[in-house]
Design brief:
The complex is a heterodimer of chains A (396) and B (237).
Chain A lengths: L1 H36 L2 E16 L2 E15 L5 H8 L5 E15 L4 E9 L1 H4 L16 H5 L3 E5 H7 L6 E6 L2 E11 L4 H4 L2 E5 H8 L7 E6 L5 H12 L1 E5 H4 L1 H39 L1 H9 L4 H35 L2 E5 L3 E4 L6 H28 L2 H6 L4
Parallel strand pairs in A: 4-8, 5-7
Antiparallel strand pairs in A: 1-2, 1-9, 1-10, 3-4, 3-6, 3-9, 5-8, 6-7, 11-12
Chain B lengths: L15 E12 L6 E12 L3 E5 L6 H8 L7 E6 L2 E2 L5 H11 E4 L11 H12 L4 H14 L15 H13 L5 E5 L7 H17 L3 E5 L3 H5 L3 E6 L2 E2 L1
Parallel strand pairs in B: 3-8, 3-9, 6-7, 7-8
Antiparallel strand pairs in B: 1-2, 1-4, 4-5, 9-10
Helix pairs in contact in B: 3-4, 3-5, 4-5, 5-6
């Protein structure tokens, strides 16, 4: 019985640990991407293409057939769209972004980069840029001076830049000098090595785009509803709206695959636990045949015998679930202390664990289903034993 | 305050607690199939002690298990307190066992993880005629009657063979059954304990008007019974 209990504890505990670690990385990744690129982006204007045909030569009667949609790059009237977007209840903030490819030079070297023109007061509501600043000066200087820039940590390292040093941004043969106001680090390497944030008005001048925006970045109160909101906005605004689930679907599918993989692993653990339970109860049935005969001779019914064995399983299950839950929580906490420096998809120094009550529910439900199924067979077998066969010693 | 032994009497009807006629039983399968009982008939009156004797393999224990409804006959009838039981389903036979029959087996068959008191209370718990305090009082009274009043809280493993068998006797009497069936009740005990257990069984059964049927190899025990029925090759001789 101790073996079954150990297996149940391990099954429940490891289920919780694997789910907590897998979902920990996924949640952290989602949090990172929501904190950098927002929950949604409005990118391109949608233009219907129509085919018209005159019927019977009459110019007054035409058949119109929709052939598809055509996307016109960028947002031509960002302010109008932003005002409309703000009327959506779930929208927390919206920020117009103008993007352009540039070359950036320090006194040390030149690198390819992307300029992101933003209005800081708008962008604060759609990203965690403020919290990603790694230099003590914060965003103060960037807010005060249009000639300042925020540079990603990787790019700054490559250019050997520190705060207050100058960079030269070159676009189509025109060069402008900016002062590094702060250095940020999102933890997403692709962002940190390419993006330079400057003021939106300055970006319009630099990129020679006096109107419009490359995209509008939107944050939501409930990011999980991004798909539904995107579909609604697309209908209303006639612009392409991409929710984060679609934007990051490749990585999300990797996490989903990892989650399924770990679920399979832990299901195998639980299966082993249930096999141990089956084995233990089957052995108990063999050991306790005489007790079964005594109980049956006293008037205990078959269902009473089944109940006794199921109760044994239930007791093991209850203790296993409680101890396994504590074990899982303790191991998850221990795992969260394991050093694991990652600085590519997101930045972390330790293993990321996200314990959720749902993991406990899943682990215990799986254990209940498997252990009770495994217990039912020996319990029913015990109930089927004929007392006469047992006392005669011919029970099968 | 102790409860009288007949406090939960099953209200017997008529003189005969048990009757069987033409009992047939085969055991084994295929070539190994043996005709163990070849049409056995038997009657047991209340307050009488019956000994079934005979060589090993003659069918004594098989008959006892059939009479105790632990097994099903291949032919013939069994009546318990006037009710025909041989054609009843498992549920009815189980209920009849609980209400009318007490068993004493050769190897005690106590639940060793439980105390003497709990072992005696087990049949009463299932029958459910008494409240918990009444069950406990009756179990204590029965254990007193078999001389184990001071050992009610000892586990089965902490009792000697003779003591375990006395607990088994008390347990068999727990529901005040009209029939006590004992399969070699003294077979595993020394002479002193054999006499003690037999005396207990017969005295308590007679006091309460129960029919006692025991299978034994012991001629001294058999001689002391009211009726001795020798068996050979599946038939009474």
């Amino acid at each position: 019985m101790l073996m079954s209990l150990s297996c149940t504890v391990l099954g429940v505990g490891l289920f919780i640990v694997t789910q907590a670690t897998t979902s920990g990385f996924e949640e952290f990744f989602v949090k990172t991407l929501l904190g950098t690129d927002g929950a949604m982006r409005i990118e391109d204007r949608i233009q219907d293409t129509l085919r018209s045909m005159e019927v019977a030569g009459s110019p007054d009667f035409q058949i119109r057939q929709r052939e598809g949609v055509k996307y016109i790059e960028g947002v031509e009237e960002p302010q109008v769209i932003m005002d409309t977007v703000r009327s959506f209840a779930n929208v927390r903030g919206v920020s117009a972004v103008l993007r352009g490819n540039v070359q950036v030079s320090s006194s040390f070297k030149t690198e390819d980069a992307q300029v992101f023109g933003i209005k800081l007061e708008d962008h604060r509501f759609v990203s965690e840029l403020e919290r990603k600043i790694t230099t003590p000066e914060g965003l103060g200087k960037f807010q005060e001076s249009a000639g300042s820039a925020l540079v990603g940590r990787v790019l700054a390292d490559r250019l050997q830049l520190t705060v207050n040093e100058s960079i030269v941004i070159n676009v189509r043969g025109e060069s402008r000098r900016y002062v590094v106001a702060a250095i940020y680090e999102t933890g997403v390497r692709d962002i940190d090595k390419t993006r330079i944030y400057i003021d939106l008005a300055e970006a319009r001048s630099l990129l020679r785009k006096p109107t419009g925006a490359t995209f509008l970045q939107i944050s939501l109160h409930d990011p999980k509803r991004a798909r539904e909101e995107a579909a609604h906005m697309e209908e209303v605004l006639r612009h392409s709206v991409r929710p984060w689930q679609e934007r990051e679907k490749e990585w999300l599918s990797v996490f989903r695959a990892l989650s399924v993989s770990s679920a399979i692993t832990v299901t195998v653990f639980t299966l082993i636990a249930s096999l141990a339970m089956f084995n233990t109860l089957a052995m108990i049935v063999l050991e306790k045949t005489k007790d079964i005969a005594i109980l049956r001779s006293m008037g205990y019914e078959r269902r009473d015998i089944t109940r006794i064995f199921l109760w044994q399983a239930a007791i093991v299950l209850a203790i296993g679930a409680i101890v396994g839950g504590i074990f899982g929580a303790a191991v998850s906490w221990g795992v969260s202390l394991v050093p694991l420096p990652i600085n590519t998809l997101f930045k972390t120094e330790h293993f990321i664990v996200a314990l959720s009550p749902w993991h406990f529910v899943q682990a215990i439900t799986t254990a209940v289903v498997m252990v009770m199924i495994a217990s039912l067979v020996p319990a029913r077998r015990a109930a089927r034993l004929e007392p006469g066969d047992i006392v005669r010693g011919t029970a099968q | 305050m102790s409860t009288p032994l007949h406090a939960v009497s099953a209200a017997p009807v008529g003189d005969f607690a048990l009757r069987c006629s033409g009992l047939q039983r085969y055991l084994g399968q295929g070539d190994g199939r043996v005709h163990v009982l070849k049409g056995v008939s038997f009657e047991a009156r209340r307050g009488q002690v019956y000994a079934i004797v005979g060589p090993s393999g003659c069918g004594k224990s098989t008959l006892l298990y059939l009479l105790g409804l632990l097994d099903q006959p291949d032919g013939g009838d069994i009546e318990i307190n006037g009710q025909r039981m041989s054609n009843r389903d498992d549920f009815a036979r189980t209920a009849a066992r609980g209400a009318h029959i007490g068993f004493v087996f050769q190897f005690h068959f106590l639940m060793l993880e439980f105390t003497a008191l709990e072992n005696v209370m087990m049949p009463m718990r299932k029958l459910g005629r008494l409240t918990a305090p009444e069950m406990e009082a009756r179990a204590r009274m029965l254990l007193d009657a078999v001389g184990l009043g001071a050992k009610t809280h000892r586990l089965g493993t902490q009792l000697s063979g003779g003591e375990q068998q006395r607990v088994a006797v008390a347990r068999a009497l727990a529901n005040q059954p009209s029939i006590i069936l004992a399969d070699e009740p003294t077979g595993n005990l020394d002479v002193k304990n054999s006499a003690l257990v037999f005396d207990l069984l017969t005295r308590l059964a007679k006091d309460n008007g129960q029919a006692v049927i025991l299978v034994t190899h012991n001629p001294e025990i058999a001689q002391r019974c009211d009726v001795t029925r020798p068996m050979r090759d599946g038939l009474f001789v």
